[in-house]
Amino acid sequence: MAIDSGTKEQSHKEHRSRQSGAKADKKKRDTSQNGKKQNPKAFAFSSTVKAKRLQSRSVEKEQRRLHVPTIDRSYGEQPPYVVLVHGPPKVGKSLLIKSLVKHYTKHNLPEVRGPITIVSGKQRRVQFVECPNDINGMIDAAKFADLALLLIDGSYGFEMETFEFLNILQVHGFPKVMGVLTHLDKFKDVKKLKKTKQHLKHRFWTEIYDGAKLFYLSGLIHGKYVKREIHNLARFISVMKFHPLSWRTAHPYVLVDRFEDVTPPEKVR
Ligand SMILES: Nc1nc2c(ncn2[C@@H]2O[C@H](COP(=O)(O)OP(=O)(O)OP(=O)(O)O)[C@@H](O)[C@H]2O)c(=O)[nH]1
C-alpha cells in the first residue's frame, strides 16, 4: 500500500473473491440451489401467510400497549387482602379459618368471631372473613372480597348458596375465586371419590372458567384439616397476585360494620 501524503489518495489492492476452498464451495452450492441464494433478503417475507400472521401479531401487540392500564389508587400502607370464606351452613368455614390461622400464627383460635387479620409476609396482611349466609351479607361481602374461597361439601355437591353467591360476585366485578372441597372423608369407596372429584371439578370449571383452582381437603386429623393441605392452600393465598378491580375503582363503597354514639352523656342531658 502506498500513501501519497500530498494528494491524500490511497490505492487499494482490488478484492479478489475466493476461487477455491470451503467458503468458495459453499457459495457455489448456495447459488446453484434453485438458482437463488438461501437468504436473499434476510428480513423480507417469502410467504404471504406468514406475513399476514406476523402483521396481525404486531397489530395485537400494539393494541396491548394501547390498553388503558388499571390504576392502583391505594397509597400509604396497603390494606389487608380480604379472603372471604363462603359456603353453606356446616360445611367447615370456621374450621378452615381456624386451620389457616393456626398455620400462619401457630396459635389456636378457639372461636371465629368477626374478621381476623394476620400478617402473612413482609409486605402483606390477609384478613379472613366468614361470609354470612343471608343475601344482604353476601352482597356486602362480594363488594369487599379480594379472594373468595367457595367451600363445597364434597359428599353433597353444590348447593344453592354457592350459585347465588357466584351470581352476586359476577355483578360486583368478580374477585378471585378458589373452590375448596370438604367432607371428602365421607366416601368409603376410592373409585367413587375419584369420580365425584372429577365431576365436581368440571361443574366448578363450567361455572367459573376452565382450570379454576379447586382444593381438596381430604378429611380431619385431631379435629383439624390435614396440615399439608392447609399448607398448600395458605401458600397459594400468600403468593397470589391481587390486581385492583376496575369495577371496584369505578364503584366506591363504604361498609359500615359498627355505629357508635360517642357523644358524652353530659352533653345529651
Ligand atoms: N368429617 C368431616 N367433618 C368436617 C369436615 N369439615 C368440617 N367438618 C365438621 O363439620 C362441622 C361444622 O364445621 P364448622 O366449621 O363449624 O362449619 P361452618 O361452615 O362454620 O358452620 P356455620 O358457621 O354454622 O355455617 C364441624 O364439626 C367440623 O368438624 C370434613 O372435611 N370432614
TrEMBL record:
It catalyses: GTP + H2O = GDP + phosphate + H(+). Coiled coil: none annotated. Residues 1-12 have a biased composition (Basic and acidic residues). It comes from the Eukaryota. Residues 78-243 form the Bms1-type G domain. GO terms for biological process: endonucleolytic cleavage of tricistronic rRNA transcript (SSU-rRNA, 5.8S rRNA, LSU-rRNA); maturation of SSU-rRNA from tricistronic rRNA transcript (SSU-rRNA, 5.8S rRNA, LSU-rRNA). Its main location: nucleus. Keywords: ATP-binding, GTP-binding, Hydrolase, Nucleotide-binding, Nucleus, Phosphoprotein, Ribosome biogenesis. InterPro entries: AARP2CN (IPR012948), ATPase_AAA_core (IPR003959), Bms1/Tsr1 (IPR039761), Bms1_N (IPR037875), G_Bms1/Tsr1_dom (IPR030387), P-loop_NTPase (IPR027417). Residues 1-64 are annotated as: Disordered. SMART domains: AARP2CN (SM00785). The keyword Signal does not apply. It holds the Pfam family AAA. One of its GO terms (cellular component) is nucleoplasm. One of its GO terms (molecular function) is ATP binding. It is found in: Nucleus, Nucleolus. PANTHER family: RIBOSOME BIOGENESIS PROTEIN, RIBOSOME BIOGENESIS PROTEIN BMS1 HOMOLOG. Belongs to the TRAFAC class translation factor GTPase superfamily. Bms1-like GTPase family. BMS1 subfamily. This is Bms1-type G domain-containing protein. It comes from Prunus yedoensis var. nudiflora.
